[in-house]
Design goal:
The complex is a heterodimer of chains A (239) and B (294). Chain A is an alpha/beta fold and 239 residues long. Chain A has a domain at 4-89 and 158-237: 3-Layer(aba) Sandwich (Rossmann fold). Chain A has eleven helices and ten strands. In chain A, the strands form two sheets. Chain A has a six-stranded mixed sheet, sandwiched between helices. In chain A, β7 (159-163), α8 and β8 form a beta-alpha-beta unit. Chain A is globular and about 45 Å long. Chain B is 74% helix and 3% strand. In chain B, a hairpin with a 2-residue loop joins β1 (129-132) and β2 (135-138). The chains are: A alpha/beta (239), B mainly alpha (294). Chains A and B meet through α2, β6 and α3 of A and α6 and α7 of B.
Chain lengths: 239, 294
């Protein structure tokens, strides 16, 4: 069996009094892509926010590279290479594209590899290089998503978590971005935890997938298996 | 009205305006980063004024040097109040931070009153003056405004030219974005709040050097109010905005005094104060995001 980079066990979390995650367990293999699918409100975003440390897990365990990071604050996790591309991108709109990227390299690991990372990000996303003086807030949706991913890469992640990277994008650009993710896994040796609406394309690039509903994993398996249970997925995802 | 009066109005309006700018930016930094309105703002200005009064008046330390003491004292007070109070309220409802900062202000006022009494005090640091168009240009006031300008430039450089400043601006623009790039947001909160208090206490020293009188435990209250007017004018969270708005406010205040003093049978000084709040209401109605925001 391949080595697991991220292992989440029985994770429970929520906001205030409202519990959203009811004991989720999942894992991402080294150099693997795991996809998390589920309807709106299933808890996908909450799951990624809890794993990234933006919200505090209520119970359960998160192990990253064999180390317990359940309660580590987000900046510590980024420093270890566990990096989130959040839903809605959360760029710094009044800073330039390049300043956004430089902030992406805020951690020690990022700073150490700064020049090299910048070249690599510009080679993956040549569009960002063309627009590097431009304010991030003035970019198109697709360019903003590229910048959000580029900024995350500047931190030199070993595991990249992406929350609906194709949301709000034209289908063609969405597919382009998912293709880039697959390329990054190959070229950078990245592991990826992907939350996506684009089910067909996600199952195409993932090597393991989870379907979650109401804060629980209701179905999991390799994409081929899951595709065979197409009716089941449709039932869960309401499509 | 003679030319001299107009010249004096513009000169002193600008000088006190620069000091208003310094006395406001602390409010802006704290609100910009932590989204907390420091209602006790003026009390920190008062503490700075007392620092200069005591160090110069009793010990003879040159007033410009007392600013350094105020900066240090501000750092201590900032760190203590942050870790004791503010840290626990950052995510609490606004009312909690309003009451807490109000209470910190009262605590500072009463502590100073307990030590130095409630008498209005002053000191004299005379550098001489020049006479232009029948107007005395008082050098100590010029010096106060210049020192204030230096503080503003230092703060500007820190926020726009250093890595800490970049991290602060990142938190202002998108807190969650700052978290996901690995910025320790709690630490930036502590540093920004402390920085805001440091510049505010320092501005109290500058103000004392300018006024050299009217120093008492409750002197800060009017500057809390003026600070709000200026901060709203300049757009809460903007440093350059606070500076420009401070100068405009100083000019506006002095000009209204000049005009009101032409009318017989009224008290121009009292009315000038109420005009500041008329200005605040007007801005809030017409351009609530500040005069200089896009």
């Amino acid at each position: 069996m391949t080595k697991q980079l991220l292992v989440v066990e029985n994770l429970e979390a929520g906001y205030g009094e409202m519990q959203v995650l009811w004991g989720i367990s999942l894992s991402v293999a080294e150099r693997g892509i795991s996809a998390v699918l589920g309807p709106n409100g299933a808890g996908k975003t909450t799951l990624l926010r809890a794993v990234a440390g933006i919200i505090r897990p209520w119970s359960g365990r998160i192990t990253f590279s064999g180390e317990d990071v359940t309660l580590s604050p987000p900046h510590v996790k980024v420093g270890k290479g566990l990096v989130l591309v959040p839903e809605g991108r959360h760029l710094f709109p009044e800073l330039s594209v390049e300043e956004n990227l430089l902030l992406g390299a805020y951690t020690k690991l990022g700073r150490y590899n700064l020049e090299e990372s910048l070249d690599l990000v510009y080679s993956v996303f040549p569009r960002l290089k063309e627009r590097r003086e431009q304010r991030a807030g003035t970019l198109s949706g697709g360019e903003q998503q590229m910048l959000a991913i580029g900024r995350a890469l500047m931190a030199r992640p070993t595991l990249l978590m992406l929350d609906e990277p194709s949301q709000g994008l034209a289908p063609k650009i969405a597919i382009e971005i998912l293709d880039i993710l697959q390329r990054l896994r190959g070229e950078w040796g990245l592991s990826i935890l992907l939350v996506e609406q684009n089910i067909v394309k996600s199952l195409e690039i993932a090597d393991y997938a989870y379907v979650i509903e109401q804060g629980r994993v209701v179905l999991e398996g390799e994409p081929e298996e899951l595709s065979k249970k197409g009716d089941l997925i449709k039932a869960y995802l309401g499509i | 009205m003679e030319v001299g009066q107009i010249f004096a109005t513009i000169l002193y309006g600008t000088l006190i305006g620069v000091i208003y700018g310094v006395a406001t930016v602390g409010l802006n930094v704290i609100f910009g980063v932590l989204r907390i309105v420091n209602v006790g703002h003026g009390a920190f200005i008062m503490v700075g004024a007392y620092t200069t009064l005591v160090l110069y008046g009793s010990l003879g330390v040159p007033p410009p040097i007392t600013i350094a003491a105020s900066i240090l004292l501000g750092a201590v007070l900032g760190l203590i109040t942050y870790y004791l109070v503010i840290k626990h309220l950052v995510d609490a409802p606004e009312l909690a931070t309003l009451i807490a900062t109000f209470a910190i202000g009262i605590l500072l006022q009463e502590t100073v009153k307990a030590i130095y009494g409630s008498d209005t005090r002053g000191f004299s640091w005379n550098l001489g003056f020049a006479e232009v168009l029948n107007v005395n240009i008082v050098y100590s006031r010029l010096a106060a405004a210049l020192l204030g300008l230096l503080l503003l430039i230092a703060l500007y450089a820190l926020i726009y030219r250093t890595k800490l400043g970049l991290a602060m601006r990142a938190v202002v623009q998108d807190k969650e974005g700052a978290m996901v790039v690995g910025i320790n947001v709690d630490r930036i909160y502590a540093l920004s709040y402390t920085l805001g208090i440091m510049i505010t206490v320092a501005s109290g020293s500058v103000l004392a050097i300018y006024l050299q009188s009217g120093i008492h435990p409750y002197m800060g209250e009017i500057y809390t109010l003026k600070g709000f007017v200026i901060a709203v004018m300049g757009g809460l969270g903007s440093i350059i905005g606070a500076f420009v708005a401070g100068v405009l406010f100083g000019l506006f205040e002095n000009a209204s005094y000049l005009i009101l003093s032409q009318i017989e049978g009224i008290q121009p000084l009292v009315l000038t104060r109420s005009i500041a709040f008329l200005l605040l209401l007007t801005i809030l109605l017409l351009k609530p995001t500040g005069l200089f925001r896009r």
